[in-house]
Amino acid sequence: MKLTPLKKFENYLVENEGRLTSQKKAIVQEVFNIDDHFEVENFIDMLRAEDKKFSRATVYRTIKQLLEAGLIQKISALNGKVFYERKMTNKEHDHVICNSCGEIYEINDNSIQKILDNYCKDIGFRPEYRSLHIYGLCKACFKR
Amino acid sequence: MKLTPLKKFENYLVENEGRLTSQKKAIVQEVFNIDDHFEVENFIDMLRAEDKKFSRATVYRTIKQLLEAGLIQKISALNGKVFYERKMTNKEHDHVICNSCGEIYEINDNSIQKILDNYCKDIGFRPEYRSLHIYGLCKACFKR
DNA sequence: TTCTATGCAAAAGCTTTGCAAATCA
DNA sequence: TGATTTGCAAAGCTTTTGCATAGAA
Are A98 and A141 in contact (CB under 8 A)? Predict the structure, then answer.
């Protein structure tokens, strides 16, 4: 039995003396309609485009709650931009990125996962999210 | 023959029509005196404590230049905090970052390097730089 | 009915920028 | 000398907060 994100959020709110308002409902649905990561300001624009003109404060507050509820995760890029995306429990984010053509490859090697899990265990760290990015030149671009 | 960070920065500045001022010199020396990562505001305080009272703008501008020169690197924690640290050319930067207190641990495990090198070799990718960040809760914060 | 959530505007952090004066090459 | 850099203050951005009102339970 799998709960919908909205249901999960509702459970979280019940447990934490929160209330499920129409704004929160709409925000949750919007977030889980987006496959990709998103920035808050863009997200607000998307809501606006659908005539869901909630205040910035409400959107920020709801995103914070979704984060606390563990339904979404935050990604901080090196350029200072902050993204959010719905949390995929079974998917890590390992990428190989070509500096020349921008092509992105996914790494699928669970020996990395094992090593990292062991490391975390050793230092008593409880991992929640990982990001592994390798930058360089892909085969084709290297030949040139 | 190994160049000092200051010399490298000087070279970078010459190539980019920049000038090596006394402020920049002092900032570079301070940065390379710090073994750990640092936040800009703390860094400014450290400079102040040594009576190097440069304007915030100058510090930010110099850090930006050091970043462009490839002498330091930026780390963004999920709680929004931004850290910098000097770049060790012979060492990859794998970090474990606590989302609660912001503490950063370094991973030293060259088996990761081997796996990644193998992976790159397999797909014909020539790696230049990698960043591996694990976010979660450190021992102390998890207990709370 | 009671307490949380919302919207607004103001404030808070952090970082960047415009401009005149200072400094480097 | 001529161009970049500095310091200051102001402005920009993103995010948070105080407060009165609206709304959920």
Answer: yes
Q: Is A4 left (phi over 0), alpha (psi -120 to 50) or beta?
A: beta
Tell me the pLDDT tens digit for each residue of B21-34: 999 999 999 999 99
Indicate the number of domains in chain B: 2
Once rounded to an integer, what is the mean pLDDT over residues B69-82?
82
Measured between CA atoms, how close is B69 to chain A, in angstroms? 16
| pTM, entire model | 0.72
Residues B68 and B3 in one domain: yes
Instruction: Please report, for the domain that includes residue A138, its CATH number.
Output: 3.30.1490.190
Tokens of B92: 């990859």
Greatest distance between any 2 Cα atoms in chain B: 53
What is the residue range of A49's domain?
A: 1-89
Please state, in angstroms and rounded to a whole number, the distance separating the CA atoms of residues B109 and B106. 10
Q: Mark yes or no for CB contact B135/A115 under 8 Å.
A: no
